[in-house]
Amino acid sequence: MAPSSAGKGVLSLRVTAEANQGGRKYMEDLICINFEREQGYEMAFFAVFDGHGGKEAAQFARENLYDYIKKQNGFFSRDNDKVCRAIRQGFLETHKAMWKKIGSWPKTVTGLPSTAGTTAAVVLIRGCTMYVAHVGDSGIMMGRHDLYYDRVRAVPLTHDHKPELPSERQRIESLGGKVMNKSGVNRVVWHRPKLSHTGPIRRSTQIDCIPFLAVARSLGDLWSYDYGSGKYMVSPEPDISVHTVDPRCDRFIVLASDGLWNMMSMQDVCNYVQECEARKHEELGGHVSHKLVHKALSRWRARMLRADNTTAITIFI
């Protein structure tokens, strides 16, 4: 994906993006990048979606999340609290709207409704204010110049929503759910109706406990709905934070799926972006996001592992 830029407004942004299927049979990572002027605001929207159980939830989120956010009361307010509430509600409305689509999504191999879900890592920039929202384990970091040490360090803007986190485990268990370890990975348990079951799902329906999903929050994953509490074991509730971007010290932002973060720490990524940027006039062979993704893919290969879908957006400030 070729570099693009937005020169209007308070901040001047230079953006590149790259997505690679890796060694997987299907490509379920998706990107959304949108620059626009609306109601007097210059806005830039960036998102990485890492789908699982099919690409349908990721596709739906890419096509609809930003629009659902903008439709919410308070989104165009100057009050950050109102904007954050609008972003939160936009996530929840996107998730809720998937109920109307799931019937048209491919069923599982056993004939059950789709188990598609997706992470969402979102950066929304308006003026010099940046809103960060996410569910799942697609991460966002900022490269910030530390004036005291005179170096650029990685500042995590998100923390993965993993089932083993005490807060997530407690939330899941409070709903009657479980977290189980399978092959060294903690997963949210799917209370799946026994394959012999036919008809509506009731409290008396016999179930199998399947260690299923390695993230504790997502959009989609409607299988995790608990009819007793009316809530989801895999929560669509985003973490949201607000930041003032300072071009004097804030250098760049990277959004990426776990195909990148599983191979490179945030400081590794920070260092590599700086290295690529310092040598950009000397080298050919792709922009920074391209190089980041292929650096991660080389590490997958070096470890003799089948590379995950790997996606990155790099925003230079």
Automatic annotation (TrEMBL):
Coiled coil: none annotated. CDD domains: PP2Cc. Keywords: Hydrolase, Metal-binding, Protein phosphatase. Residues 14-317 form the PPM-type phosphatase domain. It comes from the Eukaryota. InterPro entries: PP2C, PP2C_BS, PPM-type-like_dom_sf, PPM-type_phosphatase-like_dom. Belongs to the PP2C family. This is PPM-type phosphatase domain-containing protein. It comes from Branchiostoma floridae. The lineage of its organism: Eukaryota, Metazoa, Chordata, Cephalochordata, Leptocardii.
